[in-house]
Amino acid sequence: MAGARPPCLLLGAAGVGKSLLVKRLQKLSSKEGAKGLGEPPATLPTVGTNLTDLLLQRKITIRELGGCMGPIWPSYYGDCSAVLFMIDAANPTQVASSCIQLLSLLSAEQLASVSVLILFNKIDLPCYMSLVEMKSLFRMQDIVSCATQSITMVETSARDGTGLPDVLQWLQATLRDPSCP
Description:
6 strands; 5 helices; single chain; alpha/beta
């Protein structure tokens, strides 16, 4: 597998929707993706890690790490090409712990030059916090100004597909082959 791009890491607390996101992105990036997402597939909590390939202009591998694996996430930082960090925008009780996890990964030396996509998920739920509220709670302006990484934020609903084309577009732009125009 010489020359293969390291996987993107998909991180976030347990229950934020990482597994559903990966399944939906895989469906969207397939030949049938244009026909619509359909009903959300069933998911189970990830125990350990899942590897999923997305076929965009080139193959992109997503390594989803279970939320309960937070303490060992750093052992995967050395082998990643980008980070997707997912936050449950409908769960205010997770904000503090998600912020700590985000600050921890942004301060990791191994990730100093890795692009980061922050996904505020579950915007389809009536109790979700808006992007403005989430940015304020996380003090995103301060985080972005201090971070060495390029940080992008997107509101998503892995359930209904909102924002998922933006995620695929970010992956393509961020992980494009520098030898191709």
